[in-house]
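Work Package 4 report. The design task specified in the project plan requires that, given a folded chain encoded as structure tokens, an amino acid be chosen for each position. We show below one input record used in the internal validation round.
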């Protein structure tokens, strides 16, 4: 990250705030133009208020619809979009706005990090995962045939505006994905988030209302605090990978249709907690508590189908892109709100943890 990069933006959260807050946020950054990448599926949900907000700024703007999918989070799409943005007059003094889930904000952010050597961008996340995680922290990326998120940059958005109302149309599975990351954040640094899940009826958790607002906001605050101390993931930011080493292996083994990312992360949280219990670093009740939290969020607590073999799991864990060398750093949850980085574990040891926990 260069010294000219903007500081980490504090996300703005609320209900029905898009029309009210977006114009002011845009005006602070640019008088020259706004180029919007809008998730096609979100257009019917948010399109009208987005257009009203943009019109209200009096600043020239263009909206480009984007079909959000991992396949379209690609170099080919990036080239197409860059061309379209430039032909529409995008310049370095303008603002790129990503409106949609994590795929859309990742692509918009990465486009902004490279277009004309970098321009400002803002994020309007419309999934719980986007609000709690993906739009926060300035990691932007696209996929390569060799793997997910392999071409990317650290480029902080100038603002993140999360209007909880837009979650009204979120499919059930996407709620689960976001909630997996919310539980993760609570376990890392925010016990109140977990207490809130424990006392809220499961139906109310998955509604675009006050509970979702509190959960998304609380999880985002955990991420902001950690990223502020370690924007380039040299140390503390690794804590945000809690559950992910196990989760990525399970997600790849099962396939995204059977186990979505947040669902796999949930299982990963269970594995990480059982590992801590097995090492005597956490109490057995903690693992039971995590399982109950996942159930309340209607997240799976069992692997769908037959578990992969030990050698298959070992191979998948060894492939984890966040590892350096033959070993893997694992995040170990010790108690609610407290984790530690456990360096240099053998992939086979982690495969055994998965088999013990989910077998
Ligand atoms: N940059 C980061 O730090 C970071 C962190 C976590 C995840 N990610 C990335 O984020 C992506 C996952 O994000 P996601 O789960 O938001 O996925 P997504 O963008 O694919 O959105 C999920 C689905 O919901 C749809 N959708 C979005 N908002 C909606 C709404 N309000 N109503 C109805 N449908 C809606 C989308 O079109 C899509 O089909 C992955 O590509 C992942 O790599 C990035
Ligand atoms: Zn994740």
């Amino acid at each position: 990250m260069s010294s000219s990069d903007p500081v980490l933006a504090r996300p703005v959260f609320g209900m029905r705030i898009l029309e009210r807050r977006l114009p002011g946020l845009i005006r602070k950054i640019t008088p020259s133009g706004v180029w919007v990448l809008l998730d096609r599926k979100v257009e019917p949900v948010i399109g009208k208020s987005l257009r009203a907000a943009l019109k209200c700024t009096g600043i020239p703007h263009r909206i480009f619809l984007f079909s959000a999918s991992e396949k379209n989070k690609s170099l080919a799409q990036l080239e197409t979009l860059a061309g379209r943005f430039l032909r529409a007059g995008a310049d370095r003094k303008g603002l790129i706005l990503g409106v949609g889930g994590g795929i859309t904000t990742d692509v918009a952010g990465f486009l902004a990090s490279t277009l004309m050597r970098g321009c400002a961008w803002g994020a309007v996340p419309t999934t719980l995962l986007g609000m709690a995680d993906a739009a926060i922290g300035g990691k932007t990326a696209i996929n390569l045939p060799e793997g997910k998120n392999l071409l990317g940059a650290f480029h902080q958005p100038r603002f993140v505006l999360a209007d909880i109302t837009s979650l009204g149309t979120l499919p059930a599975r996407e709620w689960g994905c976001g909630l997996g990351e919310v539980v993760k954040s609570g376990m890392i640094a925010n016990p109140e988030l977990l207490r809130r899940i424990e006392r809220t009826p499961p139906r109310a958790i998955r509604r675009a209302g006050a509970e979702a607002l509190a959960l998304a906001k609380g999880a985002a605050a955990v991420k902001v605090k950690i990223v502020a101390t370690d924007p380039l993931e040299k140390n503390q930011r690794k804590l945000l990978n809690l559950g992910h080493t196990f989760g990525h292996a399970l997600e790849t083994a099962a396939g995204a249709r059977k186990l979505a990312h947040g669902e796999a992360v949930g299982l990963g949280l269970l594995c990480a907690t059982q590992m801590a219990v097995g090492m005597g670093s956490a109490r057995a009740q903690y693992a039971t508590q995590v399982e109950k939290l996942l159930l309340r969020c209607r997240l799976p607590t069992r692997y769908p189908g037959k578990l992969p073999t030990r050698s298959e799991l070992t191979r998948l864990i060894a492939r984890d892109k966040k590892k350096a060398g033959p070993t893997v750093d694992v995040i170990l949850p010790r108690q609610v709100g407290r984790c530690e980085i456990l360096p240099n574990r053998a992939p086979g040891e982690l495969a055994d943890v998965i088999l013990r926990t989910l077998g």
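The mean pLDDT is 95. Validation will be extended to a larger panel in the next phase.
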